[in-house]
Amino acid sequence: MAATRRLTHSVAVITLNNPPVNALSYSLRRSIIKEFVDASKDSSVEAIVLCGANGKFCAGADIKEFGSTSVDSVSLNHINDTIESCKKPVVAAIEGVALGGGLELALSCHYRVANVQSLVGLPEVLIGMIPAAGGTQRLPRLIGIPAALDMIVRGRHVPATEALQLGILDEVVKTNTIDAAVQMAMKVLGQPLENRRLGTLPVQAIPNVDTFLDTAVKRAKGQFRGAQAPLACIEAVKATLHLPFLKGVENERVLTASLWSTGQPQAQQYAFFSEREVGKWTTPSGGKWDKVPPKPIQTAAVIGLGTMGRGIVTSLSKANIPVIAIEQDAKQLDQGRQAVNALLDREVEKLKLQGKTSVPGNGLGSVKFTVDLGDLHSVDLIIEAVYENMQLKKEIFRKLSSIAKPDAFLCTNTSGLNVDEIASVTNRPQQVIGTHFFSPANIMRLLEVVRGQKTSLTTIATAMSLGKTLGKVAVLVGNCPLFVGNRMLGPYLEQVNYLLEEGSYPEEIDQALEEFGFAMGPCRMMDLAGLDVGWRSRMEQGLTGTNAPPGAPVRQRNGKRYSPLADLLCESGRFGQKTGKGWYQYEKAGGRIAKPDPWVRDFLDKYRRTHQIARHQANSQEIQDRCMFALINEGFRVLEDSIASGPEDIDVIYNNGYGFPKHRGGPMYYAANVGLPKVLSTLENYSKANPDVPSMKPAFLLRKLAAVGGPPIKEWRTQLGNTSSKL
Ligand SMILES: CC(C)(COP(=O)(O)OP(=O)(O)OC[C@H]1O[C@@H](n2cnc3c(N)ncnc32)[C@H](O)[C@@H]1OP(=O)(O)O)[C@@H](O)C(=O)NCCC(=O)NCCSC(=O)/C=C/CCCCCCCCCCCCC(=O)O
């Protein structure tokens, strides 16, 4: 962890060296300042170049050090101010990434040269912070308030070509970035540096700036629902208008301290590291991510071009993997082809915006459309994405057994069916695995990788590695009905139904959970997913419809409370967004604008009268507690059953697949934050009053952890043991 210095001509080249990403740890910062001060005093040095070892400039402050005392001992601001005020020209040579404190360091240099493949950005907002080493003050002075705000509030990683256009970079090169920076340093020798010191420049005025900033605040409040960092970013940038540079930097510090006191940065940083941890999968049999090499996937196929299949094809093609896309007849194939082509066109547009038009074939893998399963004889990996029907899936896997080459991997995109049962009809259960994508599959980051009993370690390694190649966060889970995410959704939605029965309206429930921070409330989510999906499954389970036990009480099944509300909606043709009516009404079938529906209110009021239910209108807190604690309780059961290997896995699943607010860390982190004794007592009280709702009976593991005072989440794993692991 050091910065090293060498002399090229009369230019001192200082290299940041702290693998893997040259994060600005305390010792690296101390070393940079020493080398820099020495170079600036050295009379044989006329100019200075700052670069990073191993093809990476710098990924910013060392996030692991936040909250520890070493953070401020040699502050990044001190380094930046020393660089900016240097009398010799200083050039940043950017390769790989210049993110957060890394870009702030580069912005304090007088010139910036970057490799065309590199990315720059101020992504602090994504870990609940603001760029607090002068970034909110220097960037607007360089590229203006609108462009700077867009980058800072969204935490966007900006490709070098775009950064050049924005004026962040002075030159972009294809090769030899450090040599180009040295050349630049020699070229500018003797030129005045005053107008290169961003901290001394005024910020460019824009018309109606107050309205512009007010709109930005409104948009951020709507988009980021309760996250404080985006608002603090806007506040910090706004200060460039009325505070001198140094005061603006002091303001960054005040805003950072205030953000820290909300607990949101800690939650988002936990989420950041959890995402990386889940990639390091292990199994009780000794399988380990770094011990089992994945098989390379050069070609893939997707069977079924419905919503999921189309997204998966697009995702594979985006990762430059040639795909064969299969449908059962010409008509469906044609519809699938049109939909996939439209999605791919959008991807090409995005690549163009990133300046990647010169990539051969636009950087997308080819897609071949066919109705012939026989075409799959030579592909490396096949993903079945037909609709959720066990018989149909088994029929396909039986056929694949004889068609696919012996070493091909067979994946099922089921969202909850038994992977072992599917694998059992094949001649290679060790190469069968669940790859549960989330809709839209070309956009959503989550991939649940479901291990069957016979799935081999190589198959796990290959599916996990494929997830990474597709730019997803892959989480290894065990095989049980509905796996992790959807299984936990069950008790959560059960509470939603009970709240509706008791007197809440859909929009009230959604509002409470959107205020909590969910991207979408549960009633809108059910409408979007299609109410008929659950209805069909309940019919298959004999809970409703013609298979329901004759004479069963309307609101009870097998001695447990049951809500028939969603069944009744479906019986009147209200399947959600697709039919234009569900818990809400929409402008048309397939419409997206949800409006509260007076019909639904009447229906609920009548239902309560019929069943003599006294109206209880729950407030937001009750709605949030009942829904969240139901979800969390099932999360503890998932851990007890070893379906997920730790609370971090559950949190990553919810943050990336279910619109859970990252600033709360994830449901299990949230539980730890609320305090497990409180979660337990709330569930106990509910359970006592409602013994016919077993899902709310506190889980054994919750009791166990609450009994020892609710330890910090990082200590939960040691309490888990791995008695009955399904991983
Ligand atoms: C794009 C990446 C850089 C690389 O991606 P990839 O190639 O896919 O690799 P990864 O798996 O993601 O990462 C590889 C390993 O590196 C680790 N890593 C990555 N970045 C960091 C980092 N910044 N710090 C530490 N470690 C990092 C990662 O965990 C992996 O480790 P492992 O192999 O799993 O062990 C990608 O990684 C990425 O996007 N990184 C994050 C970039 C980022 O967000 N940068 C911004 C950081 S914040 C910053 O720079 C802020 C600067 C201003 C300084 C302000 C200081 C104030 C602090 C105060 C806090 C306390 C307040 C107290 C208040 C009071 O009381 O007063």
UniProtKB/TrEMBL annotation:
GO terms for molecular function: (3S)-3-hydroxyacyl-CoA dehydrogenase (NAD+) activity; delta(3)-delta(2)-enoyl-CoA isomerase activity; enoyl-CoA hydratase activity; NAD+ binding. It catalyses: a 4-saturated-(3S)-3-hydroxyacyl-CoA = a (3E)-enoyl-CoA + H2O; (3S)-hydroxyhexadecanoyl-CoA + NAD(+) = 3-oxohexadecanoyl-CoA + NADH + H(+); (3S)-hydroxyhexanoyl-CoA = (2E)-hexenoyl-CoA + H2O; (3S)-hydroxyhexadecanoyl-CoA = (2E)-hexadecenoyl-CoA + H2O. Its EC number is 1.1.1.35, 4.2.1.17, 5.3.3.8. Keywords: Fatty acid metabolism, Isomerase, Lipid metabolism, Lyase, Multifunctional enzyme, NAD, Oxidoreductase, Peroxisome. Residues 300-479 form the 3-hydroxyacyl-CoA dehydrogenase NAD binding domain. It is found in: Peroxisome. One of its GO terms (cellular component) is peroxisome. Pathway: Lipid metabolism; fatty acid beta-oxidation. Residues 483-586, 624-708 form the 3-hydroxyacyl-CoA dehydrogenase C-terminal domain. It comes from the Eukaryota. The keyword Amino-acid biosynthesis does not apply. Pfam families: 3HCDH, 3HCDH_N, ECH_1. GO terms for biological process: fatty acid beta-oxidation. The keyword Lipid metabolism applies. Belongs to the enoyl-CoA hydratase/isomerase family. In the C-terminal section; belongs to the 3-hydroxyacyl-CoA dehydrogenase family. Monomer. This is Peroxisomal bifunctional enzyme. It comes from Leptobrachium leishanense. The gene is EHHADH.
